[in-house]
Write a structure and sequence with these properties.
Blueprint (H helix, E strand, L loop, with lengths): L1 H16 L5 H13 L3 H14 L4 H13 L3 H20 L1
Helix pairs in contact: 1-2, 2-3, 2-4, 3-4, 4-5
């Protein structure tokens, strides 16, 4: 399992180094970083994903979950609210 995570991280790192503008790559790498205990790095990647595509609810939801688990409930609440609003907008289309 650990080897698979290393491979996923290497793939994500390579995509980032090649200049990807796909938010999902940053979300995936954030998940891996968070699993490894690098919450700050994970949040940075999620911030980048949001900057690339601010109308995508996934990075807000993932960042909210991480913030909640780390005890930052106020920031988590804002992220969950934003994710919910964006999910609602998608469902309404």
């Amino acid at each position: 399992m650990h080897c698979h995570r290393d491979s996923r991280k290497q793939d994500a790192d390579k995509a980032v180094s090649l200049g990807t503008d796909l938010p999902v790559v940053f979300v995936q790498r954030a998940d891996i970083l968070y699993e490894r205990g690098d919450a700050a790095g994970a949040i940075r990647d999620l911030d980048k994903a949001i900057a690339l595509k601010p109308d995508d609810p996934l990075p807000y939801w993932v960042r909210g979950r991480m913030r909640f688990e780390k005890g930052d409930t106020k920031s988590a609440h804002r992220d969950f609210d934003q994710a919910a609003a964006l999910f609602s907008k998608i469902e309404g289309e």
